[in-house]
Design a protein that fits this description.
The complex is a heterodimer of chains A (136) and B (591).
Chain A lengths: L18 E2 L1 H4 L13 E2 L10 H18 L9 E5 L2 E9 L4 H19 L3 E8 L6 E2 L1
Parallel strand pairs in A: 2-3, 4-5
Antiparallel strand pairs in A: 1-6, 3-4
Chain B lengths: L20 H24 L30 H9 L3 H14 L5 H14 L5 H13 L5 H16 L10 H8 L5 H13 L3 H13 L6 H14 L3 H17 L6 H12 L3 H16 L6 H11 L9 H12 L13 H16 L2 H15 L9 H18 L2 H11 L8 H14 L5 H11 L5 H12 L5 H19 L12 H14 L2 H15 L5 H14 L2 H14 L4 H11 L8
Classes of the chains: A alpha/beta (136), B mainly alpha (591).
């Protein structure tokens, strides 16, 4: 049983007017029960190296995406690594014109490929607005 | 192939999928612009991107090093700058070397000449970018001078083949050279032809012959390509081309594929003479065992099918047979040029002329050829769209309606975006096959494609809908379409000019409304809009409206109609009045 003083990745209950996505609403002990992982790589398996580097890359990628798509991120990005390929799945709100989203997508893909020396594929999905799971 | 998905270069999302051809082009171009922006950032800040931690190292993902390493005035420095394609720097360095008295070897001078002739003494793309950047960075320079320079460099970058200036650097260096060999002459000739100075190229060729040097294959190709610019009349052009070919034979230079393609290109501009000669050219090619490429076929087809009158489609069948048997690799810069599109255009035009069934079979065969192997690489997005739209028009003309609809559903949002002409053809085909209930879905597609403001399409649609009476559900659907169209006309403003109603369009809309029984809407249309555009409704419209009023039992409407007709002075007003009196029970006041 968890201590009541744990505060990791939890949104505290408030007045009831704060919309919270499914991802944010569930605490970390629900991972593998009600949640999936946000970043998938083989660094944490037995005998595999490079977990710390992957964690660093993840942090950089999330900040990069937060800056490149200003105000449009509807949920946290999911990063999947398959062999050399990095697949970044981003959920965006429909704030910009589709042409501009294509521009930003092409820019992000090329820049990240050159930065990390591996092919990067960006898969965008748009939603009308942030999808709330409940209001806390 | 998934018929509902767009091209794989776009993101797979309903918001981000392009709906018509303009959008598709816009999104693909914006993605490319994003990539260019990223490349610009990488070039500006190479220090963040050049750590090599990948094993093995991937050279294409590293920033490019474009600054020359070796400083100082020496021949190696010159060679390096030539290698990096820095035109101005290499010319300056060459001048410095000559002034300092150091002899520059013949190969280096030749490679410098190569560089200059390739870029036509203009600037290469790199240097233009730097020039523009320098303009932006020096605020101290006179503003007007800066603008003039920027404008000139922009204009220079737009005209890709710049003119060959008199006494430019290449000519100067050529004259200054102490010894010249055949290579120098060849380079100069090719550069001159590339940048439009054909007469000078010819003079230089005569000089070269006087000095008893031998030209190589590429020079001869360039000269043959320059023939249309040298002579005016067809016969003279052919004679000159034959002169060059004879020289080639004398100097024992083997012709290659590009020679024959250049010859055919020249024959294209030779009118009727071209037809008879081109066949002998093809036979020469086969005798020399050179396989014709796509550009060859393209030139052939355009020689034979130019103009309106069409002799026989025999040659296109042979060409198609050849094309089906082999697979193609790009060999000639003209190959990518619309081979398939021109093919289809020819078979389409021949299909229009003879209305022969075998031409649709030609189109199918061409389609199969395109899907085979590597052939799809020859068509890019714009040409793909043009090809498919021509194919679809041909289909609409020649095939049964079921086949047409099947192709339309398969191809429509994924492979190509229908042009307005395609939609017109589709409507006509539907009309011919009496399949008019599909029209509301066609209207939906039209709205999605952005054609809802095109008057000709709207006219066609409305006239088709209102021509006859249809069973009731279809009539309801038609009326909904008419209401949509009316809404489109109503919303003017934004940036576009408001859509004008035409008399016939209004009449059709009124008809459709009255058939369904929506008297209010129909009356609104009649009263307001007709007055607004000062047109008179036709008799048919009046009658329909009358019938509708009778159906819904509103004698007031009928009376209003009669009054309207009387005020407009229509000859049918008498008839309407008598009908009203007969068919309605009117009170005294109304009478």
């Amino acid at each position: 049983p968890l201590s009541p003083q744990t505060r990791a990745a939890r949104v505290r209950v408030g007045k009831g007017d704060k919309p919270v996505t499914y991802e944010q609403a569930h605490a970390p002990h629900y991972i593998a029960h009600r949640k999936g992982w946000l970043s998938l790589h083989t660094g944490n398996l037995c005998g595999e190296a490079g977990a710390a580097e992957r964690a660093l890359e993840d942090a950089f990628l999330r900040r990069f995406l937060h800056g490149t798509f200003p105000g449009l991120l509807a949920d946290a990005a999911v990063l999947k690594r398959r062999a050399n390929l990095l697949v970044v799945c981003v959920l965006l709100a429909r704030g910009l014109a589709p042409a501009k989203l294509h521009f930003l997508g092409g820019y992000a893909e090329t820049l990240l490929s050159h930065f990390y020396k591996c092919p990067v594929r960006l898969e965008l999905q748009t939603v009308p607005a942030k999808v709330p799971y409940k209001y806390l | 192939q998934d018929p509902t998905a767009a091209h794989y270069m776009f993101q797979d999302d309903p918001f981000l999928m392009p709906r018509n051809a303009a959008n598709a082009r816009l999104y693909s171009l914006s993605k490319e612009a994003g990539r260019n922006a990223a490349k610009y950032i990488i070039k500006q800040f190479p220090q963040y991107f050049d750590k090599t931690f990948a094993e093995p190292n991937i050279p294409c993902l590293m920033p490019e090093t474009l600054t020359p390493e070796i400083e100082g005035v020496s021949e190696e420095a010159l060679k390096e700058r030539i290698h990096l394609r820095r035109v101005k720097d290499s010319v300056d360095l060459f001048d410095q070397l000559v002034q300092a008295g150091t002899p520059v070897s013949l190969e280096t001078t030749n490679s410098l000449l190569d560089l200059l002739c390739f870029y036509g003494d203009g600037e290469s793309a790199l240097e233009k970018q730097e020039e523009q950047k320098e303009d932006l960075e020096e605020p101290g320079v006179n503003a007007s001078e800066q603008k003039a320079r920027k404008r000139q460099s922009q204009r220079g970058s737009q005209s890709s083949d710049s003119r060959w200036r008199e006494n430019n650097n290449a000519e100067r260096i050529f004259k200054v050279m102490p010894e010249r060999n055949a290579h120098s002459y060849c380079t100069m000739i090719r550069g001159m032809v590339k940048h439009g100075a054909s007469a000078k190229a010819y003079d230089m060729y005569i000089d070269m012959l006087n000095e008893r040097h031998k030209a190589d294959v590429h020079t001869f190709n360039a000269l043959i390509a320059a023939v249309p610019y040298l002579k005016e009349r067809f016969l003279e052009r052919w004679e000159l081309a034959k002169v060059f070919l004879n020289h080639m034979a004398q100097q024992e230079v083997q012709p290659n594929l590009l020679t024959f393609n250049a010859l055919l290109k020249t024959l294209r501009r030779c009118g009727g003479l071209g037809k008879s000669m081109s066949l002998s050219v093809i036979k020469e090619m086969e005798a020399l065992d050179i396989e014709p490429s796509l550009a060859t076929y393209d030139h052939l087809l355009s020689i034979f099918y130019r103009g309106v009158d069409l002799c026989s489609s025999g040659i296109i069948l042979e060409v198609l047979d050849d094309v089906e048997k082999r697979s193609f690799i790009p060999q000639d810069p003209d190959d990518g040029m619309d081979f398939n599109v021109s093919d289809n255009l020819h078979c389409l035009s021949s299909g229009e002329k003879c209305c022969d069934l075998k031409d649709i079979k030609l189109a199918y065969r061409l389609n199969k050829v395109m899907e085979k192997g590597d052939n799809w690489k020859f068509l890019d997005m714009d040409k793909l769209n043009a090809y498919w739209s021509k194919f679809f028009s041909l289909l609409c003309m020649m095939e049964q309606i079921d086949v047409v609809l099947k192709w339309y559903k398969e191809m429509s949002p994924s492979v190509f975006y229908p042009t307005p002409k395609n939609i017109l053809d589709l409507l006509q085909a539907l009309d011919a096959a009496n399949h008019l209930e599909v029209i509301p879905s066609v209207w939906e597609d039209m709205k999605q494609l952005g054609f809802s403001r095109r008057n000709d399409l709207l006219e066609e649609l409305l006239s088709l809908m209102s021509r006859e009476r249809h069973p009731d559900e279809i009539q309801l659907a038609f009326a909904k379409c008419a209401e949509d169209i009316k809404a489109f006309h109503g919303q003017s403003g934004r940036e576009q000019a408001p859509l004008e109603w035409t008399g016939s369009a209004l009449g059709h809309v009124a008809l459709l409304f009255s058939r369904v029984g929506r008297t209010q809407d129909a009356w609104y249309v009649m009263m307001e809009r007709f007055q607004q555009i000062n047109r008179i409704p036709t008799d048919q419209v009046m009658d329909e409206f009358f019938a509708c009023a009778k159906q819904t039992n509103c004698p007031d409407e009928a009376i209003k109609l009669v009054k309207l007709a009387a005020s407009l002075g229509l000859p049918s007003s008498q008839r309407l009045k008598s009908r009203t009196e007969k068919e309605f029970e009117l009170s005294e006041k109304q009478r």
